[in-house]
Write a structure and sequence with these properties.
Elements (H helix, E strand, L loop, with lengths): L12 E5 L3 H12 L3 E5 L13 E3 L6 H10 L2 E4 L6 H8 L3 E2 L3 H7 L2 H10 L7 E4 L2 H6 L2 H5 L1 E5 L9 E4 L2 H10 L5 E5 L3 E11 L5 E3 L3 E6 L2 E7 L5 H16 L4 E10 L4 E7 L9 H4 L4 H10 L11 E8 L16 H5 L4 E5 L10 E9 L2 H15 L9
Parallel strand pairs: 1-2, 1-4, 2-3, 4-5
Antiparallel strand pairs: 6-9, 7-8, 7-9, 10-11, 10-12, 10-14, 12-13, 13-16, 14-15, 16-18, 17-18
Helix pairs in contact: 1-11, 2-3, 3-4
The chain binds adenosine-5'-triphosphate (ATP) and magnesium ion (MG).
Magnesium ion binds next to β15.
């Protein structure tokens, strides 16, 4: 076992389980600091594999692969929450892991996640755990009258979720999802959604980024805006996110998503134990990005300054943007038009096949003034025919 308290130097290996875009952007930040990155990912063409210094092309739970990774890396992280907690326990026998297996275990199941948040005295949407058709029949009438049935495990980007309005619909949705464990959540009257991304270091220091306001389209994040303004809700969100990180003794980058309801009250939607799509603005708008924080935590280095240097709008680029006027897929958009605009930064993930709903990249727009960032963002929206206006009224 390596000395867990040692401050490591550069030119050392950091490991990431998963080869998606979050792993790719982690590679970029860690490598910029001089680290080498080892990725565990079965798909050789995955976004992070194109940039990693080395790749182990094996399943995420392959014992030999995990042991080899633990031997080589001073610390290992994950870029998706569904990596098995057992894999992280195995890694932790020989190396530092951030986050810890028990944090992954708690948040990767919606039922344990919600129970945990509630146990801290932090509100979540009213819900019931559904493990059988019988549980559905016993669910509170309010949940059945207007609810969302969500798979407890493995959901992302709104997948594995069904809106239901009576018991019959709930039963049908439950069967369609293979009668796997679910939570039935009350569908809440949202005013808007915000998220807090923070990093907590091995020394328990916390660095919190500015609150992000998020708009989803078809269950997928479409737009994030960060105006640097604080209000009652952003203060509350920040406090709750810090409380969650502290209580879990969490090490790494964490995102907490919140629903702000029409009466101004707020509940936690969910926790992501990793950098988050709504934190991509940090790449161009903050002194330190969420991915650099992840590398710093892993290496036992001090956290970077999370300060916001500019107002920002982030626009997600889904596969739809690659569909040409004639309807053919994989038509590369004309980036030169948007790159000519001030404050525009393009981030593409190296995915060669565009599919509807697939996250292909994002655009960060920064400006000294939020109104100006929104103005430019709306030009980008028009130019690329994105589904969402970047403006919030
Ligand atoms: P992601 O991967 O984007 O985090 P996910 O699959 O984990 O998505 P959720 O975060 O649970 O799914 O839900 C996606 C979106 O659906 C939310 O951001 C929100 O817009 C809407 N939504 C989810 N639950 C509720 C609810 N109880 N009431 C109202 N809207 C909801
Ligand atoms: Mg979510």
């Amino acid at each position: 076992m390596k000395n867990k308290n040692s401050r490591i130097g550069f030119d050392q290996w950091l490991g990431v389980v998963g080869g998606g875009q979050l792993g790719r952007m982690f590679c970029q930040s860690a490598q910029a600091m001089g680290f080498k990155v080892l990725v565990l990912e079965p798909d050789v063409h995955a976004p992070a594999c194109q940039l990693a210094d080395d790749v182990i092309n094996q399943p995420y739970d392959n014992a030999d692969a995990l042991d080899a990774m633990a031997q080589r890396c001073v610390a290992v992280t994950t870029e998706f929450e569904n990596v098995s907690a057992q894999s992280f326990e195995r890694l932790a026998r020989h190396t530092r892991v951030a986050p810890a297996a028990n944090a992954l275990d708690t948040v990767q199941d919606r039922a344990t996640e919600k129970a945990y948040i509630r146990s801290l005295g932090i509100p979540v949407a009213p819900y019931a755990v559904i493990e059988s058709l019988d549980d559905l029949s016993k669910a509170a009438p309010e949940l059945l009258a207007d609810g969302i049935l969500k798979l407890s495990r493995m959901g992302y980007d709104g997948k594995g979720q069904h809106r239901i309005q009576d018991l019959a619909q709930a039963r049908q949705a439950f069967s369609e999802m293979g009668e796997r464990p679910c939570v039935l959540e009350s569908r809440l009257p949202l005013d808007h959604e915000i998220s807090i991304v923070l990093a907590r270091g091995l020394d328990s220091q916390i660095a919190v980024f500015d609150a992000a306001r998020n708009v989803h389209h078809d269950g997928i994040l479409a737009v994030t805006h960060v105006d640097g303004q604080q209000n009652e809700q952003t203060h509350q969100a920040r406090d709750w996110a810090c409380q969650i990180a502290q209580q879990m003794n969490y090490h790494g980058v964490l995102c907490v998503e919140f629903f702000v309801l029409q009466d101004g009250s707020m509940v936690v939607n969910e926790i992501a134990p990793r950098p988050h799509n709504s934190g991509h603005f940090t790449q161009n708008a903050c002194v330190t990005s969420q991915f650099e924080q992840q590398a710093r935590v892993m290496a036992g280095l001090p956290l970077g300054d999370p300060r916001l240097l500019a107002a920002a709008v982030m626009l997600n680029l889904l596969g739809e943007v690659w569909v040409g006027e004639s309807g053919d897929q994989n038509q590369e958009p004309d980036w030169s038009k948007i790159l000519a605009l001030p404050g525009v930064a393009l981030h593409l993930y190296g995915k060669t096949e565009a599919r509807v709903g697939r996250k292909m990249g994002h655009i960060n727009i920064t400006a000294p003034d939020f109104k100006e960032a929104v103005r430019i963002a709306n030009v980008v929206v028009e130019t690329l025919s994105l589904p969402e206006k970047a403006v919030f009224v």
